[in-house]
Design brief:
The chain is mainly α. It has 18 helices and no strands. The longest helix has about 50 residues, at about 1-50.
Length: about 475
């Protein structure tokens, strides 16, 4: 009978973990479908929202609206961080998925410049700002939710699931873009076809809301409340006062991943079409194949980071960025589908090394009572500064220099800075058995890494 009870407990735990993974990832998928669609379809959208006589100016305006969403993300991190640290992680997941679905659908129904003139880019920018607020809470809340459901030495794997949700959404966005590009003529795409993928967001969000409604609150948050720990009066103030050092270190590492990811996602497919000699269908298709290769490897990266640590992978990722990104761009000039695919597979090596261990590291460094705020702020600030501006900067650099290699030089400088920060400032956290439950400065130095809030009866131990 004891063995039956153990087996039933394991089955229940497995079902709970599966529900947690699905609930955490579904919003990331929908959020990044939107970001992927915007990045892939920006060259087509530009003529809808801006005057068409200067394509470069229109494209820069479209990318500028894209960047505005990232500027607003820290605001979302503050608002939803407060909600998550005071009311619970589940409340954030339910709210953000509704906002993401509604606002993404709005992109697909906005009037164009021909209909409302200057109001068209103004409306696009307004929606992007609101999207930024919603996105600013989604990833930090979802990543916290996943990491707090992970067992000891499985946080890298669960962070890998979060990254799989991110790139899975981008894959769906690429697939949708490739499909409409293949089915419709260029005239149809520019007139109305680009809108169709954005309109799928609302039904997808309805499904995601249903899945998240049945999700449980995290054991770490429940243990914190059952132990009598009061919620922070001002999560953002306390985070900035007590967690400024891990936030600064993380930001210096995250800037490389931010630019590396979004040059690939939001700029390179368009470059392959406009300057790389490929049709739009071939450019989207090569990107879709590369994404499909990367996604399962992210779980491998998570497992690897749990076993060998976050630091070795991050150092390898920064070093390989400096060497492999220019090599990738050299291959991309081949002008064929095979060259485009080969270039992107080379480009993905540093992405494999950086994305997952970076996602796992920040939640491991901050306490439970501030984890949503700190995680959201830690991701949103560097991504607002570097990720949202990546396609804009890349377009300007290529236009100024006449060569794609100017972009690789920009990424290389950031990677060199991140390498030094990881080497000199990053404490390894992969082997810690527990997540910190109280601010480290309030603990004895010898206990900082492994101390956690005492659990109340029948509440699972954190981690």
């Amino acid at each position: 009978m004891a063995s039956v009870g153990i087996a039933q407990s394991r089955q229940k735990a497995g079902r709970t973990s599966a529900r947690a993974v699905v609930a955490g990832c579904v919003g990331n998928i929908i959020e990044h479908i939107d970001l992927g669609l915007y990045g892939y379809l920006a060259p087509v959208m530009a003529g809808t929202f801006f005057p068409g006589h200067d394509h470069t100016a229109a494209l820069l305006g479209t990318y500028g609206a894209f960047a505005l969403g990232y500027v607003a993300q820290p605001v979302g991190g503050i608002l939803f961080g407060r909600m998550g640290d005071r009311l619970g992680r589940r409340a954030v997941l339910l709210t953000t998925i509704i906002l993401v679905g509604v606002l993404t659908t709005c992109i697909g129904i906005l009037p164009g410049y021909a209909q409302v003139g200057i109001a068209a880019p103004a409306l696009l920018m307004l929606v992007r700002l609101l999207q930024g607020v919603a996105h600013g809470g989604e990833y930090g809340g979802a990543l916290t939710y996943l990491v707090e459901h992970a067992g000891p030495r499985r946080r890298g794997l669960y962070s890998g699931y979060a990254s799989m949700g991110v790139f899975g959404g981008l894959l769906v966005g690429a697939g949708m873009s490739a499909l409409v590009s293949a089915v419709l003529t260029d005239e149809q795409m520019h007139a109305w076809g680009w809108r169709l993928p954005f309109l799928t967001a609302l039904p997808l969000a309805a499904v995601g809301l249903f899945l998240r409604t049945g999700a449980d609150e995290t054991p770490a948050f429940l243990a914190s409340r059952e132990a009598g720990e009061a919620p922070p009066a001002s999560p953002i103030r306390e985070t900035l006062r007590t967690q400024w050092r891990p936030l600064l270190l993380f930001s210096a590492c995250a800037m490389t991943n931010a630019v590396l990811s979004f040059v690939w996602v939001a700029y390179l497919p368009g470059w392959l079409e406009s300057d790389g000699g490929l049709s739009s269908t071939a450019a989207f298709a090569s990107h879709t194949v590369a994404l499909a290769v990367l996604i399962p490897l992210l779980a491998v990266a998570g497992i690897l980071s749990d076993r060998i640590g976050r630091r070795p992978l991050l150092l390898a990722g920064c070093a390989s960025t400096i060497v492999l990104v220019p090599l990738s761009f050299w291959v991309a000039h081949g002008g064929t589908f095979g060259a485009a695919l080969g270039a992107q597979l080379i480009y993905l090596v540093p992405e494999f090394c950086i994305a997952v261990p970076l996602a796992a590291w920040l939640p491991e460094m901050v306490p439970t009572r501030l984890r949503v705020t700190a995680t959201a702020l830690g991701f949103n600030v560097p991504f607002a500064l570097f990720s949202g501006t990546a396609p804009l900067v890349a377009t300007a650099l290529v236009d100024w220099s006449g060569t794609l290699y100017a972009v690789s030089a920009y990424i290389g400088v950031l990677a060199a800075i991140s390498f030094v920060v990881v080497l000199c400032g990053l404490r390894e956290t992969a082997q810690d058995d527990t997540l910190p439950a109280v601010p480290p400065e309030s603990l004895p130095d010898t206990a900082t890494a492994r101390t956690t809030t005492a659990p109340a009866p029948r509440v699972p131990q954190e981690g």
